Amino acid sequence: MSYKAPWLALAAASGACAAFNGVFAKLTTTQLTTSWSSAISTFLHLSSSNQFIEFIIRGSFFLLNLAFNALMWALFTSALTRASSTTRVSIINTSSNFLITALLGLIIFSEKLPPLWWVGAAGLVVGNVIIGRREEEGDESGKAQASKGVQSEGEERPLGERYRDLDESGRERVDDDILELDTDVGDEAKGFKRGGEEDEE
Q1: What percent of the chain has pLDDT over 70?
Q2: Is residue 45 exposed (0-12), middle (13-18) or buried (19+ Cβ within 10 Å)?
Q3: Which positions ≥6 away from 166 have C-beta within 8 Å?
Q4: With b meaning 16 or more CB within 10 Å and e meaning fewer, what string describes 49-75?
Q5: Nearest in space to 14 (alpha carbons), one of 62, 79, 67
Q6: Alpha-carbon torsion (180, 186, 189, 190), positive or negative
Q7: How far is Cα 158 from Cα 112, in angstroms, rounded to an integer?
Q8: pTM passes above 0.85
Q9: What angle do the packed helices 4-29 and 51-82 form, to 10 degrees?
Q10: In what helix (H) or strand (E) does residue 174 lie, and over which residues does it extend?
Q11: From CA 9, how far away is CA 13, in angstroms rounded?
C-alpha cells in the first residue's frame, strides 16, 4: 500500500492541476474577468473601466495558467515513474480532471452541465477502467510466461537429448543441428574406444 499511495495522489493532483489550468485559461479571455476587474477598481476607488487593473488581472490569470500547466506535467510524469502501468495513471488523471472541471465550472462560471455530459464522462471513465484491467491481466500473463521460460531454461537436461517438434504434416521432426551434435559425440566415443583397444594390444 505504501507503494501505491504516492502515484495515486500524484495522478489525482495532476488531474486537478489540469482542471485549474483550463479555468485560468478561460478567465484570461472571458468577460467575467472584466466584471471582476471593475469591481476591484471600484473597491480601490478607481475608475470602473480602469484598463491597467484589468490587464494585471488577466496577466495574472495567464501566468497561473502556465504555472498549473507546468505543475500538471511535473506531477503526471512523477506519477508515471512510480506506477506500474501508464493506463492506471491516465485513468486517475482523467477522472479527477473531469470531476474537478465540472465543479469549478459550476462554482465559478455558473455552468450547468446537461445529463448527456455526465453520461459521456461516465462512459469515458468506465472505458478507461476496462482498458486498465485488460492491461493488468496482460502484464500478469506476460510475467507468468516469462517465469515459466526462465524455469525451463534453468532445467538441466541430459547431454545429447533430442528435442523434437511436429512439422506441418504432424510428423515428428528432429533438429538437424542436434542430430549433427549427437553424431559428433558418437564418433568421438568410438574413436576413444578404438584408441583404448590399440593401447591394450
Answers
A1: 62
A2: exposed
A3: 172, 173
A4: ebeebbeebbeebeebbeebbebbeeb
A5: 79
A6: negative
A7: 75
A8: no
A9: 160
A10: strand 172-174
A11: 6
Report residue 170 as a C-alpha cell. 504432424
Cα 110 from chain centre: 34
Name the grid cell of 57.
488581472
Which residues, listed in sequence order, are joined to residue 174 by a DSSP beta bridge? 164
| Helix, strand, coil in percent for the chain, rounding step 5 | 80, 5, 20
Specify the DSSP class assigned to residue 201: -
Q: Which residues does residue 160 pair with via DSSP β-bridges, in sequence order?
A: none
Q: How far is CA 20 from CA 23, 57, 71, 100, 131, in A?
A: 5, 16, 11, 8, 27
Tell me what the mean pLDDT of segment 171-181 comes to.
50
- Contacts made by residues 12-16, CB under 8 angstroms, sequence distance 24+: 12/92, 12/93, 12/96, 13/75, 13/96, 14/72, 14/73, 14/75, 14/76, 14/79, 14/93, 14/96, 15/72, 15/92, 15/93, 15/94, 15/95, 15/96, 15/97, 15/100, 16/96, 16/97, 16/100
Residue 110 grid coordinates:
455558473
The secondary structure of residue 173, as a DSSP letter, is E
At 146 the pLDDT is 57
Question: For 73-131, how does the pLDDT look when each residue is reduced to its tens digit (9 = 90+)?
Answer: 999 999 999 888 788 888 889 888 988 988 898 899 888 888 888 888 788 778 767 77
